[in-house]
Amino acid sequence: MGFHAADNEEESYIHFVGVDPALHGQGLARRLYTAFFRRAAEAGRRQVRAITSPGNIGSISFHQAMGFTVEPGDRDIDEVPVRIDYDGPGKDRVCFCRNLLPQDQTPCAS
Predict the structure, then answer these.
(1) What single string gives the DSSP state of each residue in 53-93?
(2) What is the pLDDT of residues 53-108, one digit of tens each?
(3) Among the listed residues 97, 93, 87, 68, the one whose alpha carbon sits nearest the alpha carbon of residue 10
(4) Counted domains in the chain
(5) Residue 84: CATH number of its domain
(6) Which of 106, 40, 32 is closest to 66 using CA atoms?
(7) What is the pTM of this model?
(8) Is the pLDDT of residue 110 over 60?
(9) Within 10 A of 60 (CB to CB), how many other CB atoms are there?
């Protein structure tokens, strides 16, 4: 599930992607993300943001492999920058940002 940010015409946001564990490793999530990147770029968006839980090492690795950078956090948990209480009390998250155009080196604004 993803959407274009209502308050920022340059950003889109991937809220979550769920893939049946039986289908893991077949490239489905990569294809979903790639399709979302294409549609966001077609809509004039320059950046895509996403989040995950600090303990979800697989998700962190996947996002980095998809070209996302981990954004600075309030503190590190297991050497990963985390924003404390991002999704509410006790719901810390790792925040990611990805530029859609390879030549665009505009840093993601926090």
Answers:
(1) -TT-HHHHHHHHHTT-EEPP-SEEETTEEEBTTTTSTT--B
(2) 999 999 999 999 999 999 999 999 989 999 999 999 999 999 999 999 866 666 67
(3) 97
(4) 1
(5) 3.40.630.30
(6) 32
(7) 0.88
(8) no
(9) 19
